[in-house]
Specification:
Helix content of chain B: 25-40%
GO molecular function, one term (chain B): FAD binding
Strand order of the largest sheet of chain A: 3-5-1-13-10-11-12
Largest sheet of chain A: 7 strands, mixed
Pfam family, one (chain B): FAD_binding_5
Organism (chain B): Loktanella fryxellensis
Mean pLDDT of chain B: 97
CATH architecture of the largest domain in chain B: 2-Layer Sandwich
CATH architecture of the largest domain in chain A: 2-Layer Sandwich
Number of helices of chain A: 19
Helix content of chain A: 25-40%
Number of domains of chain B: 3
Number of strands of chain B: 13
CATH class of the largest domain in chain B: Alpha Beta
Distance between the termini of chain B: 46 Å
Keywords (chain B): FAD, Flavoprotein, Oxidoreductase
Protein name (chain B): Carbon-monoxide dehydrogenase medium subunit
CATH class of the largest domain in chain A: Alpha Beta
Mean pLDDT of chain A: 97
Strand order of the largest sheet of chain B: 4-5-10-6-7
Oligomer: heterodimer
Number of domains of chain A: 3
Strand content of chain B: 15-25%
Order of helices and strands of chain B: EHEHEEEHHHHHHEEEEEEEEHHH
Low-confidence stretches of chain B: none
Radius of gyration of chain A: 28 Å
Largest interface: A-B, 31 and 25 residues
Number of strands of chain A: 30
CATH topology of the largest domain in chain A: Aldehyde Oxidoreductase, domain 4
CATH superfamily of the largest domain in chain A: Aldehyde oxidase/xanthine dehydrogenase, molybdopterin binding domain
Structural class of chain A: alpha+beta
Distance between the termini of chain A: 70 Å
Radius of gyration of chain B: 19 Å
Low-confidence stretches of chain A: none
Bound molecules: flavin-adenine dinucleotide
Chain lengths: 793, 277
């Protein structure tokens, strides 16, 4: 089977074109159906009493007053839930040494972060449940809290989980080549300390779940705002003791996820347990404060990095010491060690160098648990790597673009293996860098920067190359024992009128999955995209699969859809050949009709074929296969991950009186392999960049020394908003993966991976002539001013 | 979180509103634009309130000028202030402030009476009203009171308005022919409350300076005003920074706020003198 994607004049050429999103009209009409829109007969609401302490023993719970409140139906404690729901442990076997204690849906005898659910109050309405929750009396004995990352392992710091021995959750050292010798012999060495701010995903739609339990059928149905319905199915089945076939997870419209909605949250599992206990539908929708204290946090890293170069700027070695604090539990089932592990895997990623040492130290503390958020670990690794590369270039007097030209993997060097043992099938650093230079008019921009400086205006240009991990194989989770599918499937069916229904296991979170699938299926079968109806997000109606995470929907789910669509095409043509008395190979399907392959002459509409197959099958030869439903699955196997690459640039202006950083413009060139829908890809990149810019300038969760979250609202936790966003110019180099027919890699995280580093480098480029450097994100006006030495306390 | 409200009543006129307020016996709350109150209710910072909706009271609406004073009804929306020709002519500071207050949706609902009664030290209108030497008009069971802005603001969210009184209007002296009124502030994002800001008014009697977001209430920066009257902008900046004791929070330390107030004053002075800061 060959598909000439390079030929824009080929029939049914939807792959590679911007086609309208099938679900856009419904969403724009306000007819989206989110979990909160769902109303079921006998439905009740749950609100949670949450720990006000970062660390405290729970010594008593009195629900008398709450139970007397109008509308309150039931109050449940950790022990009540534990009677029907087993605890879980967030470890993976291949992350050697990772430890974490069993976690219950509701805290049992100890609460370990501010916001941990302790008691559940069920009432007729959410407001009544909150009224009840306010009246539950919980007695706490405060315990000493662990809140500082860098002293978490000190001898005089209390141990959070006594039976674990210490506060070390995970440590991994990767050592390649002879790092010490490389540093000893280097012409230039630069060392710096970087901090990335703890932040969270801030989905527009908060976490939401509605669970119904029908004892008669023994069937649990969960309507869930989730990225991974099958993973949720496994978890509900396992911990509530049900067969997987009796758990149905439905994921309708989802208002953004960014990794937040791919984890197991105790309040959501408690909601399911309560449904089972009460045998009626129970709904939980997190409010914004709950989102800030219980959605996973991420990016809380402090890193010391060193780079060694020779006199020509050739990179000889990186030496990275990464620390991160993850809360009191490793999050189930993907764990909280992946982010640190990624930092080790990804530092130095774009560069061809020989000596690499990196260690991550992952510690427990009494804060909200951290886990995977869009571009897991990438922004940290890219910030450290690109920060060091720029600092070394400045010290050597080499232009940052030239510095990268001298060090990136050559475009003809593939396949290649990095010093961190990452395997690259085919990347395009050199071509991407050149495209960026052309796109931004690099030399003219440098001239503009100099002219501005002559007028007293301080501007800077920052570059950040990056690699992005996409299309993960079972090497990411399955190998570690997690029941998280790296495979996806698609079932494509032709209905009697010739229209097509395709059910896929990848999910729609608002990013355009269904548009991508509709155009692949349309091209694969040979119909118009409007003739394709996509079904996602229902474990009972779609094939089994992984869902949305790690930039895998198009590359893996798209390939399964293409294979299934091509199989349906073959099946249709088998029938058509019999009906038209000709070789199926001489026929094609175009725009919903069977045609002659050679000249495109119309032979028969699909509706006619459908009429015969479904209603007059007696007229077809006996024994003729007429399987107008085809299913295919796909799992990447040749490489553990399909790496992509790219490079971003930022142009900023710094107000040296206020410290304000204005984003003037942003560029990104990236290579996600085959582009299925240019507009969707560009908007993925832009949205990702915005989240990276948020990390650079705005987003940071503040805690005090007692572990109290200080800014759990959108007034105090600043997300990037349109007013501050620069124009973003996006372009692509296309190096399709040879592992699949489709050739698509992921594009969902590239923007986030590199944006913050580009801004940091731009600010430092601006500050360098006047003396000052920033390395602690976010680069607030105050931090910039302090870096300039302009603020005295 | 879901709000827990004790009740709701729509007042038909001022008398009705005052009666409802009296009947509420301490738990009644005026609902104007709702842009501060509803947010607080939705976070259950306040529960059980009996809301008295004043949005239909015509007597609280409208902007008039009698030649010497500009009178702005309490229910005038920020968005109306932004485009009103009388405001633009007689109190340009208020018009300029609307450029930096919140976002369009909030300006469409929020009222000047609500903003002044709410007395958030980070809000622009309270500072402007004091900088312009305005009067706050209130009405209570015992009749009307006129409170000079200098006597109105007490503390964070606290004013001298009594629990049984309603703010009906504010009035301002119309700007003199040579009067200059500017507002300079710095926030993290457009529409955010300022980390620090300065209202500067220059009229025949002298300069008036009121800062935003650096104290528990809007206050005249008298020492800095005196330095400006003496033609000493550097001294004014130094005097302002010296006098301020701003709060620290997750957005900015006291030191940074103090520094910013100085930068904003410098820019405000440059703005009215036509020089670059
Ligand atoms: C996201 C957001 C951003 C914002 N940013 C800014 C900003 O940058 N700058 C700024 O200044 N404001 C800002 N605001 C607040 C906004 O300007 C409000 O409109 C204003 O503070 C209150 O006016 P209101 O009419 O909405 O009052 P309401 O919210 O209805 O009431 C506020 C308080 O005043 C009392 N009250 C209202 N009217 C009267 C009256 N006539 N007599 C007696 N008491 C009364 C109420 O009982 C209540 O206690 C922001 C608001 C939001 C939601």
């Amino acid at each position: 089977m060959t598909l000439d994607f390079g030929n824009p004049d080929r029939p049914n050429s939807y792959i590679g074109k911007t086609v309208p999103r099938p679900n856009a009209a419904r969403l724009v009409q306000g007819r989206g159906a989110y979990v909160d829109d769902m109303v079921l007969p006998r439905m009740v609401h749950v609100a949670f009493v949450r720990s006000p302490h970062a660390h405290a023993a729970i010594t008593g719970i009195d629900a008398t007053a709450a139970l007397a409140e109008p509308g309150v139906l039931r109050v449940l404690t950790g022990a009540d839930i534990a009677a029907v729901c087993t605890p879980w442990v967030g470890v993976l076997a291949h992350l050697k040494g990772l430890k974490s204690p069993p976690q219950h849906a509701l805290a049992m005898d100890r609460a370990v972060w501010v916001g941990e659910p302790v008691v559940a109050v069920v009432a007729r309405t959410r407001a009544e449940a909150e009224d009840g929750a306010a009246l539950v009396e919980v007695d706490y004995d405060p315990l000493p809290e662990v809140t500082d990352m860098m002293t978490a392992l000190d001898a005089d710091t209390p141990v959070l989980h006594a039976d674990m021995g210490d506060n070390l959750a995970f440590r991994r050292l990767h050592d390649h080549g002879d790092v010490d010798a490389a540093f000893a012999a280097a012409h230039t060495v630069v060392e710096a300390r970087f901090k990335t701010g703890r932040h969270t995903g801030v989905t527009l739609e908060p976490r939401s779940i509605l669970v119904d339990w029908k004892p008669g059928d023994g069937l649990m149905t969960a309507w869930h705002a989730t990225q991974a319905p099958h993973m949720m199915q496994v978890v509900l089945a396992k911990h509530l003791d049900l067969p997987e076939s009796r758990v149905r997870v439905i994921c309708g419209d989802v208002g953004g996820s960014y990794g937040i909605k791919v984890h197991i949250y105790p309040d959501e599992i408690a909601t399911a347990a309560i449904a089972k206990i009460m045998a009626r539908p129970v709904k939980f929708v997190a409010d914004r404060l709950e989102s800030f204290t219980t959605d996973i946090h991420a990016r809380d890293h402090e890193v010391t990095g060193r780079i060694a170069c020779n006199a020509d700027g050739k990179i000889l070695a990186f030496d990275i010491d990464d620390w991160t604090a993850i809360g009191a539990y490793s999050v189930y089932p993907r764990t909280s060690a992946i982010e640190g592990n990624q930092v080790v895997n990804l530092c130095g990623g774009p560069y061809d160098f020989a000596n690499y040492r990196a260690q991550t130290t992952v510690v427990f503390q009494n804060k909200t648990p951290t886990s995977q958020y869009r571009a897991v670990g990438h922004p940290v690794a890219v910030t450290v790597t690109e920060g060091l590369v720029d600092m070394a270039a400045a010290k050597l007097g080499i232009d940052p673009i030239e510095m990268r030209r001298r060090n990136v993997f050559a475009d003809d060097a593939y396949p290649a293996v990095s010093p961190s043992n990452m395997r690259f099938e085919g990347l395009s650093h050199q071509a991407s860098l050149q495209k960026l230079v052309d796109l931004m008019g690099y030399d003219a921009l440098r001239a503009d920067q100099a002219a501005a400086r002559a007028r007293g205006i301080v501007r800077g240009i920052g570059i950040a190359s990056f690699i992005e991990l996409t299309n993960p194989s079972p090497f990411m989770y399955g190998i570690g024992g997690a029941r998280i599918s790296a495979q996806d499937g698609c079932t494509v069916r032709m209905d009697p009128d010739g229209s097509i229904v395709a059910a896929s296991s990848v999910t729609e979170q608002g990013q355009g999955t269904e548009a991508m699938l509709s155009q692949i299926v349309a091209e694969g079968v040979g119909v118009l995209p409007a003739q394709v109806r996509i079904v996602t997000g229902d474990t009972q109606a779609t094939p089994y699969g992984g869902g949305t995470w790690a930039s895998r929907g198009a590359g893996i789910g798209g390939e399964a859809a293409l294979q299934a669509a091509r199989a349906l095409r073959e099946a249709i043509l088998t029938v058509a050949g019999a009906m038209l008395q000709c070789e199926p190979a001489t026929l094609d399907i175009r725009d919903g009709s069977v045609v002659d392959m050679a000249d495109g002459a119309d032979r028969m509409p699909l509706a006619e074929l459908g009429r015969i197959v479904y209603f007059r099958g007696d007229t077809l030869p006996k024994g003729l296969p007429r399987e107008l439903v085809q299913t295919r699955h796909y799992t990447p196997a040749d490489y553990p991950f399909a790496f992509t690459n790219g490079v971003q640039a930022s142009y900023v202006e710094v107000d040296t009186d206020t410290g304000d950083v204005k984003l003037l413009k942003h560029w990104c060139v990236e290579d996600c392999g085959r582009i299925i829908n240019p507009q969707l890809v560009d908007e993925q990149i832009r949205g990702g960049i915005v989240q990276g810019l948020g990390a650079a300038l705005f987003e940071e969760l503040h805690y005090d020394a007692e572990g109290q979250l200080l800014n759990g609202s959108l007034a105090d936790y600043l997300v990037p908003m349109a007013g501050e966003m620069p124009d973003m110019i996006v372009a692509h180099v296309e190096t399709p993966t040879l592992e699949s027919t489709l050739g698509a890699k992921g594009a969902g995280e590239a923007g986030t991976a590199g944006a913050a580093a580009a801004v940091m480098n731009a600010i430092n480029d601006a500050l360098r002539p006047i003396g000052g450097e920033v390395t602690a994100m976010p680069f607030t006006p105050e931090r910039v001013l302090r870096a300039l030495g302009k603020l005295q306390d | 979180m879901k709000a827990s409200v004790g009740g709701y009543a729509r007042a038909t006129d001022l008398r009705h509103a005052l009666d409802l307020l009296a009947a509420g016996d301490g738990s009644a709350r005026i609902l104007a634009g709702g842009q501060s109150l509803i947010a607080a209710l939705n976070m259950r910072l306040s529960t059980g309130d009996l809301l008295i909706d004043i949005n239909r009271i015509d007597a609280l609406k409208g902007i008039t000028c009698d030649g010497s004073r500009l009178r702005i009804g309490a229910l005038t929306r920020h968005a109306e202030i932004a485009v009103d020709p009388l405001v633009a002519r007689h109190a340009p500071l208020l018009r300029k402030a609307t450029d930096v207050i919140a976002h369009a949706a909030i300006r469409n609902r929020g009222t000047i009476g609500g903003a002044v009664a709410h007395a958030d030290p980070a809000a622009e209108f309270p500072a402007c009203v004091l900088a312009l030497d305005g009067i706050i008009h209130v009405e209570g069971p015992d009749g009307a009171r006129d409170i000079p802005a200098a006597d109105f603001f007490v503390d964070v969210f606290e004013t001298t308005i009594a629990p049984d009184e309603i703010l009906t209007a504010i009035s301002l002296p119309v700007a003199e022919p040579d009067e200059r009124q500017v507002i300079h502030e710095f926030g993290r994002r457009s529409g955010d409350y300022a980390l620090a800001g300065v209202c500067l008014v220059r009229r025949a009697a002298g300069h008036r300076i009121v800062c935003i977001s650096v104290a528990t209430r809007p206050e005249l920066a008298t020492a800095a005003m005196a330095r400006l009257d003496a033609g000493d902008p550097d001294g004014a900046v130094a005097a302002l920074e010296e006098a301020l004791d701003p709060p620290s929070d997750t957005q900015a330390t006291a030191a940074y706020r103090r520094h910013l107030a100085g930068v904003m004053l410098r820019r405000a002075v440059a703005d009215i003198t036509g020089e670059t800061a």
